[in-house]
Amino acid sequence: MLRLGVLASGRGSNLQALIDAIEAGSLAARLSIVISDNPHAQALERARRHGAQAVVIALEGERAAFEDRLVAALFAAGVDLVVLAGFMRLLGKRFLSRLPCPVMNIHPSLLPAFRGLRAQQQALDYGVKVAGCTVHFVDEGMDTGPIILQKAVPVKENDTEADLAARILAEEHQLLPAAVRLFAEGRLRLEGRKVRILPEKQ
Ligand code: GRF
User: For 162-192, how does the pLDDT look when each residue is reduced to its tens digit (9 = 90+)?
Assistant: First the structure.
């Protein structure tokens, strides 16, 4: 069974969506470890409630040392896939090259539009009529890796940042477990920067 490692800095509602899918039996995976750089992250509490290992690794001093500690913890947990679910730190080449498995991220925009922080506010400021979310494999750039799944939502006339964020978040909670499920089923094939989704095995 797929062993998952999740990195989360805050609320952890996307982590919860993964936990709910696992507990409902709709995602054949085991949550091996949740790591947060923030000791107060609600994500840690959600992990413990599920019975998963919850670890704090804070960024103190050198970023290289921080990344090495993350890799060591994920390696020790024997994870097959790492999911960044609201992890607020950029992970560099060092992390990615030392990690023995792929990394996925969930981002609240239709990439490649609105990379980085406050993507929903960026979308409102730009005036787009359609927003959404993206699950992608992580590469060395910021929100630039190969796209796995995307879902669009409408932007409504008087949306605030919170309104749009909530509409997108509801879709994130479907999209992230769906992407992890495809990975668990061996149905994602990377071809250059494109992710091919293979048909369901009969
Ligand atoms: C989500 O909007 C996610 O797309 C972004 O950070 C937010 C995390 O929310 N990367 P949560 O911690 O999963 O509730």
Answer: 999 999 999 999 999 999 999 999 999 999 9
Catalytic residue flag (residue 107): yes
pLDDT tens per residue, range 34-87: 999 999 999 999 999 999 999 999 999 899 999 999 999 999 999 999 999 999
Ligand 1 midpoint to CA 168 (Å): 10
Residue in 40, 107, 136, 173 annotated catalytic:
107
Distance from C-alpha of 168 to C-alpha of 166, rounded to nearest angstrom: 5
Q: Which domains does the chain have, with CATH numbers?
A: 1-101 (3.40.50.170), 106-202 (3.40.50.170)
What gap in Å lies between CA 169 and CA 115, rounded to an integer?
16
Residues sharing a CB contact under 8 Å with residue 162, sequence separation 6 or more, in sequence order:
none
Pocket test residue of 106, 111, 133 for ligand 1, highest count of atoms within 8 A of CB? 106
Q: How far apart are the CA of 17 and the centre of ligand 1, in A?
A: 11
